[in-house]
């Protein structure tokens, strides 16, 4: 009671009582320092562009996967103990299966909404990987990986790779005929590793394949180890996005030293928050109308049974393709077998996958550019980079074609042999063709931009001159458009300098420097980029005969 | 890297003024600055703004109704009810209704929020300054000095014995973790070299679970067999069948091109490992006329009339053959184990 008498004195002197929300915030600030954080971030500016949403798709899918995944763990039994099925699904009556498979049937047929949550989980996983893939393409083709964002590019790259393996381990958990075949494939690939292959296989499976352990082991990898690392990487990724501030495309008022857009509160809170619900809603609707991974139609895993048309999830299809089209080379020597037919695809898979991780460092070495870059490149203005990216994607998708060679063969009545040879040849030739074609398209677009700047926009209005000639009226661009189309930087190729120094002594030029100069010429040399119009050129044309 | 060795003047030109910061109005490509804000209809017309408000509220109400629908569907539809819905075909009524109602409940929250942001919240673009990520020189100097002081106080540079032994200890301690992984599984030893097959083991038909007799094997049919004594409810059934699964076909002895294969057969009945030598899928597609078998996983194709050699696909060596004969009761029996490991190749296979 005595406290009541003392409290009014504290609130005296005409001070109003703060609203409840403010008092809660005060309480939190006294312990967590939230006002400092909010000051820096509440009105943080984010630029607007449709392509910036791609990463959000990946982020929200990840949250959806965690939410639905936790629900699934409530019912799933990660056990390979054998049971005989006596549930409501008639075709499986009396069939022997692992508890993992039986509990997945239970989730699908007995738990109300269980099937929906399972399908949302699987669809969200596919969309998560696809979202990361296109997000990485966006970052790559616009050069957003350049300084200071190389580390964040690596975080993103690791998220993609770990996402692939999280997806694979999750896909294997129901222990159905299709996923078990995929695990068998993995085990066969592991066996091909020289010297340690059989040891890794024995340790991973707790003995001979399939054994009784892999579901439980994959389970802890799938629900704890990999998602735990990914959550950490994801938080770090987002912190860096905030810390670096978002990149933006060139445009009037946009410089390398500012960021133009709308504030986090309220616009991006509403847009990004709303977008989470849109992504979740659309995945739920897809899961309502499109079945994914109907494990009940496949049956439980038996190492001596298989179904035709076996396909991994899309993100593993590239590796699958390499394995399918590789000639079966085996070298036997001194009592050992080197199974190159499987080992080379395995190594190639790792190499191709790791190229994107290396690229930012390669490019910055070639350009020698140590400055920060916050203005995005239009893909056309970095022709060689864009062409290399398209070449990589081409190799990836050619591999994907190989991964589905049986489906291509049956759906389009093609010969498997022809598809194999197509993939073998075009895994190498395809990227080269894609590189050349992409680069030419980029250079063509650069020329068009140049023409547009110098001669204006084609209006489509044809004018007949008094002497009968027809001309199209070109409308000059606005100052904003002129600036946007000429804002990109153009590097000059690195030169090695004279062969001899001032004393006539031959200079030492290391092979590394020569390679760098060659690459630099390939990136920025003559015919590898179109010089952007200069102010003088523009003035000469617009003042000389501006009507044209 | 080696970029320092390249003369400075050959580095790409640093274009400090490439973006913004234009020196004079003389430049036709100068940055004209942020364009003026274009008002939306909602900024000018209060009635339009009210319409937007109603649209947003309508979407939020739709979301609420969808959630009510979700709960209703959960209660109403039995979990096993199948209905026909065009164009999706026969679908689970519960999955369909729960998914759609949940989907719409979520979607309309998102659509409402985005519509609200786009029509009613300010869309004025404002610039915010960026600051270099790199610390200013004086900060860096301070950090370096602090680090130096700390390192000096620890004496780690001076007392090399401490430093060396510390690194040694830190390098060794993870070994305990590695050692702990040893019991994840047994050593490979010869485990991949042998199967359950042995001399005198009967071939059991996997469809009928009866011992196979030569008269049961017709030309043109593919039979799967496993060794007698292996029960489906055995603890290690899966691991054993993964190696012991057998394919039996009958080929006219004259059609068998490989001499050893003919010797190891019984009156043209040949037994090959069912496990593909590529990565271990079970082979299950048989072409009667050509005696080719195909693995459906990666399309390796083997010619069973010619020592099961690989005629197409990524497999690296033929399927191992099991030597079979007939015992005194007229049943097919194995005359030993496979003489080479079955399934995919491995380093120790030889």
From TrEMBL, chain A:
**Which InterPro entries does this entry report, sorted A to Z?**
Cyt_b/b6_N (IPR005797), Cytb/b6-like_sf (IPR027387), Di-haem_cyt_TM (IPR016174)
According to the UniProt entry, which residue ranges have a biased composition of type Polar residues?
A: 1-12
What SUPFAM superfamilies does the entry give?
A: Transmembrane di-heme cytochromes
Highest taxon of source = Bacteria
The record's GO CC annotations read: plasma membrane
Which compartments is it annotated to reside in? Cell membrane
GO molecular function list: metal ion binding; oxidoreductase activity; quinol-cytochrome-c reductase activity
Query: Which ranges form a coiled coil?
Result: none
**What are the transmembrane regions?**
52-76, 120-141, 153-173, 185-206, 218-243, 272-293, 340-362, 382-401, 421-442
- What is the required cofactor set for this protein? heme
State if Chloroplast is listed as a keyword: no
* EC code(s) of this entry: 7.1.1.8
- Keyword Transport on entry: yes
Quick one: a GO biological-process term for this protein?
respiratory electron transport chain
Q: What keywords does the record list, in alphabetical order?
A: Cell membrane, Electron transport, Heme, Iron, Membrane, Metal-binding, Respiratory chain, Translocase, Transmembrane, Transmembrane helix, Transport
Query: What is the membrane topology noted in the UniProt record heading this document?
Result: Multi-pass membrane protein
Instruction: Give start and end of each Cytochrome b/b6 N-terminal region profile domain.
Output: 24-250
Reactions catalysed, as given in the entry: a quinol + 2 Fe(III)-[cytochrome c](out) = a quinone + 2 Fe(II)-[cytochrome c](out) + 2 H(+)(out)
Provide the residue span(s) of the region labelled Disordered: 1-22
Q: What class of enzyme is it?
A: translocase
Q: Show which residues constitute the signal peptide.
A: none
Where is it mostly found?
Answer: membrane
PANTHER family, per the entry: CYTOCHROME B (PTHR19271)
Q: What's this protein's name?
A: Cytochrome bc1 complex cytochrome b subunit
Organism (species)? Streptomyces microflavus DSM 40593
UniProtKB/TrEMBL annotation, chain B:
Q: Give the way it sits in the membrane.
A: Multi-pass membrane protein
Q: Which residues form the Rieske domain?
A: 269-333
Provide an example Pfam family for this protein. Answer: QcrA_N
* UniProt-listed CDD domains: Rieske (cd03467)
One cellular-component annotation, GO: plasma membrane
The record's listing under InterPro entries reads:
QcrA_N (IPR045603), Rieske_2Fe-2S (IPR017941), Rieske_2Fe-2S_sf (IPR036922), Rieske_Fe-S_prot (IPR014349), Rieske_Fe-S_prot_C (IPR005805)
Keyword Kinase listed? The answer is no
- Keyword terms: 2Fe-2S, Cell membrane, Disulfide bond, Electron transport, Iron, Iron-sulfur, Membrane, Metal-binding, Oxidoreductase, Respiratory chain, Transmembrane, Transmembrane helix, Transport
Quaternary arrangement and interactors, per the entry? Answer: The cytochrome bc1 complex is composed of a cytochrome b (QcrB), the Rieske iron-sulfur protein (QcrA) and a diheme cytochrome c (QcrC) subunit.
The protein in question is named Cytochrome bc1 complex Rieske iron-sulfur subunit
What does UniProt list as this organism's lineage? Bacteria, Bacillati, Actinomycetota, Actinomycetes, Kitasatosporales
